[in-house]
Each structure stands twice: as structure tokens, then as C-alpha cells.
Amino acid sequence: MVPGVPLPPEIQLAQRLAGNEQVTRDRALRKLRKYIVARSQRATGGFTPDELLKVWKGLFYCMWMQDKPLQQEELGRTIAQLVHAFQTREAQLQFLRAFWQTMIREWVGIDRLRLDKFYMLMRMVLNESLKAVKIGGWEERQIEQLLELLTAEVLSPDSQAPSGVKSHFLEIFLEELTKVGAAELTADQNLQFIEPFCQIAARTKDSLVLHKIIQNIFETIVEQAPLAIEDLMNELDTQRSGEGEEASDGDDGDASDGGDGDASDGDDGDASDGDDGEASDGDDGDDGDVSDGDDGDASDGDDGGASNENDDDSDESSEDEQDLQDTPPKKQPAGTMRGAGPEADKEQAWNDEENTGPVLQFDYGALANRLFKLASRQSTPSRNRKRLYKVIQKLRDLAGGTFPEDDVPEKAYKKLLEGRRERKKKKKRLSKPQPQNKEGCLS
């Protein structure tokens, strides 16, 4: 380096972000945010991919040096929120791409003691990535761009991502999408978010990736179906009551005229507790040794399927395919109560008192059809086809109103189809087995 020539700002900031003193790191992080805002506002002042990789290397070691759990969480959130400092969508995507490339490059050097903090950072960056799309109004092109980036860097067979990165990403994707978008996203938009996982599941030769997609994406959708139907019914009830059809529980048919219907303009309590939380008291950076515990991919044990199934799998798969084509979705006869039994008394999960958040809505028939189209291709490995056909059957059952858990969601589904509205009662289900006396006889 020529004496007297200053280093580029990105390198200077990266060096300070990786410094031993927490005060230095905190100050560098604040300066970095201001620098990003100022530079990305210029018409011709965008960042190059190489510059962003330098910035992310500094941010990676800034996280590396932070040992205190509460400060780790605050630092991770501050780093993830840097994506909103970029003033254009293209610059945000470049920043996110540099993050995933940095995690992939540095993963093998992360030791067990530091693994959790980087798992947390991945989760927070994904969360803020989805919030950036939400701020853009869930515009279709922005969703597509984010999914293309994530597929290319993490999911694609051509990606260099270690198993640990892929595994953790697949474990958290649906959770974070639910947190950010469950209250707003439509079934069609959710199908767009799931499309890359459908395609990868149909063609991947990585048994871990196949297993994680089926377990953490498709099986989770099936498990959450009763909650999704219940959410939809609650939303329909709210809309109908909002239209002025106040269904009173009493017999009085008088139109209650006390009508100043105060539309509770919900003070939407913006939770932007934007205090900066600068923990400028510590020189805890005594820990800068980059130990290369070669232990990054902590999840390569679950193999997701048997490996040598090629002899008679094709015959079985063709039979399964024929079954899926010929068999309509199962529907419960009217009045059938699937969950009635002693265990049904224990389950009050669908009570009004349960405080569960919204879940993602899906068109189960459309998702089943999309998976079937991909799984039935000749190029789809037989192992993938077998496992996907099992998922497809469950989705088709859901589309026909058959739920995996108990009868309450089925009743909600019937109400949805028939257009009836009933006020939910805070009671146990009506159909219960008759109580038995001590001798086992019916009382």
C-alpha cells in the first residue's frame, strides 16, 4: 500500500467493526448505517458486490466478537435492519446476496460455541428480508426477486451452501413468513412463496434437503390446516358482523337502533421502540480467535429416505400416480364426527380462549395439483415421487374437508362451504361419548 493513500471507507469500517473494543464496534456500526443511507441515495453511488462483501465480513466478525447473549440479540437485530437503510430495491437485494455468500464462505470456520448466534442472525436477516417485501406491498415482482435470490444462493443444487445453512434455512422459512405475512398474504401469494420448494423437492438428489422440505414446509402446512380454517371462519364472521348484521344471541328481533357504532379506530400502537441500545461499556473483545471447528453443518444426520429404492420403486410410483389420478378427495359424510372419543375431551385447542396467532392460508387443492404436476414428471427421482405423493394425498384430503386432527375444523369447513354463520360458543364439543360408571356400564 502506498504511504499516505487512505483505505476505502468500506475497508476502514470493516476493520473497526471487527475491533476488540465494543465501543469501537458500536460506533462503527452507527457510522456504517449513515454511510449506507448517504451513498445509496446518490444516483450513481451504489455499492459494488465486492464492496458489500467487505462490509459483510466486518459485520460477521462484529457478531463473532459479541459474547453477551442480550447484546448478541440486539446486535443481530441492528445488523439485519441495515437492509432498510438502502434506498433502492436493487441495492437491498445486493446486500442480502452478500450476506448469504458471506455465511456460506465463513460457515466451516464457526465453532460450536458461536453457532447459535449465527443461526439467530440468519433468522433475523430472513425476517427483515420479508419485511422489506411487505413494505413494498407484497408486490409480485419483489416476491419473485427475493425467491430467486434465496433459491440461487441457498436452495439450488448448484449452490455452495453447506448442509447446516440449507437445513437451518428450511427450518425457519415458513416460521418467519408466518410472523411477517400471515395476517395479510392471500392463498395465491403463499403459493408463490412455496413454489421454489415444490420445484426443489421434485428434483433434488440431496436426501437431507428433500426431508427438510417435506417436514418443515409441506407437513407443517398440513398440520396448520385446522388453524388456517378456523382463522378464515373468524375473519368471515368479523366481516359479516362489520357489515351490520349484528346477530344477537337473544330472541328479540328488534333492530337495535342505538347505532352510533363506534368504529374502534384501534390505536395501532406502533411498536417501533427504536432506541438504539448502545452497549458502549464493554471491552469484551478478548475472543477474536477464529477457531475452525469444522462443524458447521450440524444437521446431516437425518437422511430423509432410504437410498437404494430403484428396482421396484418405479412400479410402486406408477401405481401411486394412478391412485392419485383416480381417487377423489375423501369427504366426511354429513354428521360424521371423527374425533369423538375419550381423547377428544382433552382437546380444547379450538376454544375462543386460546390465543394463537394467524397462520398462512393455502389453497390445498391448487398446491396438491402443482406438486402432482412436478412429481409425475419422468425426470423426478422415484424416491422424491414416492414421498411427494404421500403429501399430495394429504393435501387433497384437506381440499375435500378431511382434517387430520378432529371434527371441529370440519364443522368450520362445512359452515364455510354452506355459507352458514353461527356464533361460536365457549363450550366443549357437543358430541362426546356417554360417561361410564365404575363398572364400565353406560350410566
Structure summary:
Residues 238-357, 417-443 are annotated as: Disordered. Belongs to the RRP1 family. This protein has 443 residues and is mostly helical.
Walk me through this protein's architecture:
InterPro entries: RRP1. Belongs to the RRP1 family. This protein has 443 residues and is mainly α. Helices cover 55% and strands 0% of the residues. It has helices at residues 9-17, 22-41, 49-65, 69-80, 89-106, 112-135, 140-155, 163-181, 187-203, 207-242, 313-326, 364-375, 382-399, 407-418. The longest helix has 36 residues, at 207-242. The radius of gyration is 27 Å and the shape is globular.
List the helices and strands and how they pair.
Layout: H1 9-17, H2 22-41, H3 49-65, H4 69-80, H5 89-106, H6 112-135, H7 140-155, H8 163-181, H9 187-203, H10 207-242, H11 313-326, H12 364-375, H13 382-399, H14 407-418
Helix pairs in contact: 1-2, 1-3, 3-5, 4-6, 5-7, 6-8, 7-9, 8-10, 9-10, 9-12, 10-13, 10-14, 11-13, 12-13
* First-last Cα distance: 93 Å
Calculate Rg over CA atoms.
27 Å
- Structural class computed from helices and strand pairing: mainly alpha
Low-confidence stretches: 250-311, 330-355, 416-443
